[in-house]
Amino acid sequence: VRTICQQLDKGEMTDDIRKELNKWEEDPELIK
Q1: Which superkingdom is the protein from (predicted)?
Q2: Quick one: 28 exposed, middle or buried, by C-beta within 10 A (0-12, 13-18, 19+)?
Q3: Angle, CA 24 vertex, CA 26 and CA 3 arms, to 5°
């Protein structure tokens, strides 16, 4: 998760990150 946040900070939105964010939106429990 840390690396994803770092990439988002740099403004890099890759398909992999989009997939992960979609997973979180569908299942917020994954964030905890």
Answers
A1: Eukaryota
A2: exposed
A3: 160
CB atoms within 10 A of CB 20: 14
Closest CA to 17 of 31, 4, 6, 26: 4
- pLDDT (tens digit per residue) in 1-32: 567 677 666 666 678 878 888 888 887 776 65
Domains in the chain: how many in total? Answer: 1
> Which residue, 10, 3, 9, is CA-closest to 20?
3
